[in-house]
């Protein structure tokens, strides 16, 4: 009996000790290790998912969308809850049009959470949701779309995989457009079924940026440039359309275009806006500023005549005409009309050799060259203009005809706008409003007299008249403008085969409401500004003038 009692006592003691051990272990787990195990359990049951903020829209001047964000979805995985990795990978790959191997690698991860695909369209997301795949979840997202496709893409820009602006307006106004990201906690039970969602932080929507761009004029301009690109296969081309009275940019096109939703296949050179980043020697389009400075200084009037030899020598350089001719007497108006190199150099020498000296440089800089225009757009180039102290003996044989310096297409637009609007140089305006706050029109600076501007407009009418250098007309409207055909500098010398063809023009000539420029880099076959660029200007003007309700002359 005593033996039995002893055994019962020992057994009781053993269980008591075991029970105490269990209690101590439980206390250890709940106190010392409780936080760690609780966090581990929560990490297996709760996934924290980033909910991207929605980007604001980029709109044209009429409020039409150029870049918007639409509802989308992000597909994610809780890898340890995926029951059949191979089968799940195959089904997801088919729905997402991806390779199964890449998805299989994601589903085989040791992590508790993995993104499978981000910014998936809602149709695809719905298809995946109906598959009811264990371990696969879906949360709301948004993605960037461009309703106009490639139209204006090099101006508008694009976003990366993280929905952050990379270049163009998307990049320069990232602080306004970007919404703030939110966070969502998704809770699942032991079987992987979703049992709850908690918003940790709300995602927000960014502000809108409205451009001065008119979507319809932009589309027509892009169409004209595509036709020009097909015909002449240039290295690149750009066209700008502006209201010269306000400086508002109505269209800004760069060719060739780029697909903003497929940047991986795009050449890096195409991720820039040629209107602001391309620098070139302007050639004969620059002669208008040589004449403007000379008239402002009282050296010439439109009817002033010069006896011009077939060529003119400046230091060691002989300047010839683009087409040989004999000795002639020409007025200043005729010099611009036929784009006489000898005549422009003659005027330039008078301007720079007068009693004040360095006046050519003074007037060119007054028109805004050798400095950025100040447009609200990233990466604007400023061109190159030699200072008078750096002139060589032959410099004034180059500069008056647009050689030996470089400009951007936008600088030429701003300078010609001053001729068109009566003498006021303004900063071009591309942004109409930011997050609802209007961007004011620049008051500008009067750089030449209204009379000189008027005389220049009358003289530039001759360029597009019979006997002028441009082949362009728009029925019902009197046009004015200037052609340019400039040799490109290749390996330090002027090329005999590579040119930049350009035309800058406005209408109606008497009181311009539309200004446009077309600049074509290295066109193949024909290369003259009058036959390559001017017709493109004519097509753009033929659409834009009646579209804007500008009455015929």
Walk me through this protein's architecture.
Strands 2, 3, 4, 5, 10, 18 and 19 form a seven-stranded mixed sheet that branches. The protein is built from 17 helices and 23 strands. The protein is elongated. A hairpin with a 2-residue loop joins strand 14 and strand 15. It has helices at 2-31, 34-45, 85-96, 100-107, 122-131, 153-156, 168-172, 174-177, 215-232, 274-277, 287-296, 332-338, 341-352, 359-366, 409-420, 450-461, 529-547, and strands at 46-51, 58-59, 65-77, 114-120, 136-145, 158-159, 165-167, 182-188, 194-201, 209-211, 236-243, 248-255, 305-308, 312-314, 317-319, 328-331, 424-425, 431-434, 437-438, 445-446, 480-490, 493-507, 514-521. The N and C termini lie far apart (131 Å). Mean pLDDT is 89; it is low at 36-43. With 553 residues, it is an alpha+beta fold.
């Amino acid at each position: 009996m005593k033996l039995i009692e002893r055994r019962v006592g020992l057994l009781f003691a053993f269980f008591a000790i075991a029970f105490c051990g269990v209690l101590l272990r439980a206390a250890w787990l709940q106190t010392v290790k409780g936080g760690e195990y609780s966090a581990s359990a929560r990490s297996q049951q709760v996934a924290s998912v980033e909910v991207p903020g929605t980007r604001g829209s980029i709109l044209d001047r009429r409020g039409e969308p150029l870049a918007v964000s639409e509802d989308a979805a992000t597909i994610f995985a809780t890898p340890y809850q995926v029951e059949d990795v191979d089968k799940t990978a195959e089904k997801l790959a088919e729905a997402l049009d991806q390779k199964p191997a890449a998805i299989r690698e994601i589903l085989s991860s040791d992590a508790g959470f993995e993104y499978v695909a981000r910014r998936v369209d809602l149709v695809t997301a719905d298809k995946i949701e109906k598959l009811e795949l264990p371990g696969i979840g879906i949360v709301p997202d948004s993605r960037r779309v461009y309703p106009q496709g490639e139209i204006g893409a090099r101006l508008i820009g694009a976003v990366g995989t993280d929905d952050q602006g990379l270049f163009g307006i998307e990049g320069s106004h990232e602080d306004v457009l970007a919404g703030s990201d939110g966070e969502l906690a998704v809770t699942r039970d032991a079987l992987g079924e979703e049992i709850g969602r908690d918003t940790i932080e709300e995602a927000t929507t960014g502000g809108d940026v409205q451009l001065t761009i008119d979507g319809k004029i932009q589309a027509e301009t892009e169409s004209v440039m595509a036709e020009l690109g097909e015909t002449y296969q240039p290295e690149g081309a750009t066209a700008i359309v502006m209201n010269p009275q306000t400086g508002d940019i109505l269209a800004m096109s760069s060719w060739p275009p780029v697909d903003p939703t497929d940047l991986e296949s795009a050449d890096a050179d195409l991720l820039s806006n040629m209107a602001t980043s391309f620098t070139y020697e302007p050639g004969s389009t620059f002669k208008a500023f040589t004449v403007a400075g000379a008239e402002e200084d009282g050296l010439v009037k439109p009817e002033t005549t010069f006896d011009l030899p077939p060529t003119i020598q400046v230091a060691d350089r002989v300047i010839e005409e683009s087409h040989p001719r004999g000795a002639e007497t020409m007025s200043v108006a005729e010099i611009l009309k036929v784009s006489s190199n000898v005549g422009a150099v003659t005027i330039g020498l008078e301007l720079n050799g007068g009693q004040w000296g360095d006046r050519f440089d003074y007037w060119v800089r007054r028109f805004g060259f050798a400095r950025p225009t100040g447009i609200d757009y990233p990466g604007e180039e400023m061109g190159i203009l030699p200072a008078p102290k750096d002139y060589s003996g032959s410099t004034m044989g180059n500069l008056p005809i647009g050689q030996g310096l470089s400009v951007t297409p936008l600088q030429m637009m701003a300078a010609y706008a001053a001729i068109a609007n009566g003498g006021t140089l303004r900063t071009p305006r591309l942004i109409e409003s930011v997050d609802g706050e209007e961007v004011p029109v620049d008051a500008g600076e009067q750089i030449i007299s209204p009379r000189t501007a008027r005389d220049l407009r009358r003289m530039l009418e001759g360029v597009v008249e019979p006997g002028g250098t441009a082949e362009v007309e728009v029925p019902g409207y009197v046009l004015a403008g200037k052609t340019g055909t400039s040799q490109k500098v290749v390996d330090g010398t002027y090329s005999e085969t590579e040119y930049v063809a350009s035309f800058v023009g406005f209408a109606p000539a008497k009181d311009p409401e539309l200004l446009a420029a077309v600049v074509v880099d290295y066109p193949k076959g024909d290369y003259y500004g009058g036959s390559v660029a001017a017709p493109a200007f004519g097509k753009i003007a033929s659409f834009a003038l009646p579209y804007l309700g500008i009455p015929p002359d």
